[in-house]
Amino acid sequence: MTRILCTCLLALLLLVTGCTTRPPANIHPPLLLISIDALRPSDVDASQMPTLNALADAGVRAAWMTPSYPSKTFPNHYTLVTGLRPDHHGMINNTMYDPKLGSFNLQSREAVQDPRWWTGGEPVWITLQRHGGRAATMFWPGSEAAIQGQHPRDWRIYDDSVSANARVDQVLDWLDRPERTRPQFITLYFEQVDEAGHTSGPDSAESRAARREVDSALARLLAGLDQLGLRDKVNLVVVSDHGMANITGREYIADYLQAHGLGLDAIRITTSGALAGITPKPGREAAVEAALLGRHPHSTCWRKQELPPRWHYGSHPRIPSIQCQADLGWLVLNRDNGRPFRGGGAHGYVIEEPTMHATFIASGPAFGKHVALPAFDNVDVYPLLMRLLGLQPLPNDGEITPLLPALKTAP
Ligand code: AMP
Ligand code: ZN
Ligand code: ZN
Prior knowledge:
The chain has 411 residues and is of the alpha/beta class. The protein has helices at 2-20, 50-58, 73-82, 86-89, 109-112, 124-130, 164-175, 192-200, 205-227, 253-258, 285-292, 381-389, and strands at 31-36, 60-62, 65-66, 96-98, 102-104, 135-138, 154-155, 185-190, 235-239, 245-246, 249-252, 267-271, 275-280, 294-296, 299-303, 322-326, 330-333, 345-346, 360-363, 371-373, 376-377.
């Protein structure tokens, strides 16, 4: 009898130690990080996005999430998965120039897939895989580059012709795998709301249709999770990278320069729009600064190192030496090219503007129910993701404290 009892105790001990020596990620529920590009928190309501709104009502909804400066797509997506401000991870805009690497823009597959642009910070998927876990990305900026020599175990080349439903089906396929090969961390990205917002403005019928399209893809996801018996076993974190504002007017860098007897040949313009990044040509620094720095009718220009400190931006070598920030609704463009004003929407405005605020919603076994979170900064999402995966966060610019009330059992 005693021998049987001893054998049982030994078996129990082996079982317990066996569990604790598994890679930490395996004992945590799968984590699905969903980004709906440019979704404003105020658009998550019962009439436009009934599925997401119900998820937010039942789980966690932040009043808003403040994006990192600049309120652009690549900088903020990389911040979400590294916890670093763009000034620190180096993805300082969607369009960049680096003396060693040349030009970066979203249309250049070669640049987007070149790991040398992505060396600042380590995204969640790499850390997870370094600890023996498995990640999969149904699109995410950075996932197409072999950062530190590796991609997520499953990943896709960005292709906006893949329908929202097809993306969801891919994620469900990954979750349907046996636990041994099932990813613990999955991303899912939707650009439809951003694209409609740029073309037609965030309050247009087209934008409302895009929000409905994404919402119905989310309904498909939840139904699929139900079918797999995973509805209450997966942690869902739904975010956006920034908001969207209506464009109301345009201002021209050529006009600022001309007033001081200069032409566009005195500068290199790396990026223009809601914000412009400008570098004077060698020898023209003083003249260009005299023409550009300070206040214009609908924009303000600073030396990069003199930008308002609250934006945590201006030290990275890839940031052009002069930054011009348009007022809400305005664009700073190179020159008047005679194109008719079309309206539409833009982002890239200052992160304090309510229309630039981003969305944060969460639900799943780790999260409390009916939690209304005050606003927080998007650098804080990374420590949360790491906590949900059971991983030690790397040094970062965020803190988990504002998100602790979202968790079911705050330690
Ligand atoms: P923007 O509005 O300029 O900040 O950029 C948003 C756009 O980035 C979206 O509409 C997408 O088409 C595009 N985009 C998102 N992810 C990727 C990616 N991984 N590679 C290239 N383009 C992307
Ligand atoms: Zn975006
Ligand atoms: Zn956009």
